[in-house]
């Protein structure tokens, strides 16, 4: 197998793994179902990735890399808390429509019974926590709100909320309740404007 054909096979397997996990769920995903979707032999799942779970994590990584690049650009345009809420709402909707929420929640659900998956999921959450913290620090850093709720703590809260919303989306078929939560955040954000005003730097008194 040439290097090019090997790389093409890996890419097909990653795409097929993502598609199968989204449509069949973790319980219905196997080397056979992935290989069938990719149009190749199931032995190649183990040859290229060493197993089904590493392949599913590779599919999650691929999706996360694409999302991180797009979301960094969207978040960078937010200058106020209101704009940040708007960006977060758009990110949620994009992830939902693109299927990333299903990828993530299926693997989180599987990790309950598989500790080795749990560690991998936690490790992959850290860059997102850092991303959210950096974004919050840029928007509200140095403000009274940041003093009350440090960006790092808010980043953990945001990721926890995001995970909860993702899981609840499967129960909220018409999305009215999850959309209502973002609507509430949009109404609260303008009322917190005074808390997000930057505090002036204190001048040190000369002796």
The share of residues in helices is over 70%
Globally, the shape reads elongated
Number of helices: 10
What is the averaged pLDDT score?
86
Order of helices and strands: HHHHHHHHHH
Report the major sheet.
none
- Separation of termini? 76 Å
Residue stretches low in confidence (pLDDT < 50, at least 5 long) are: none
Question: Which terms would index this structure?
Answer:
207 residues, mainly alpha, 10 helices, elongated
What does this entry look like structurally?
This protein has 207 residues and is mainly α. It is 76% helix and 0% strand. The chain is built from 10 helices and no strands. It has helices at residues 3-24, 31-38, 43-49, 52-76, 81-98, 100-111, 115-140, 144-148, 151-169, 176-191. Helix 1 crosses helix 3, helix 4 (52-76) packs across helix 6 and helix 6 (100-111) crosses helix 7. The radius of gyration is 21 Å and the shape is elongated. The model has no long low-confidence stretch (mean pLDDT 86).
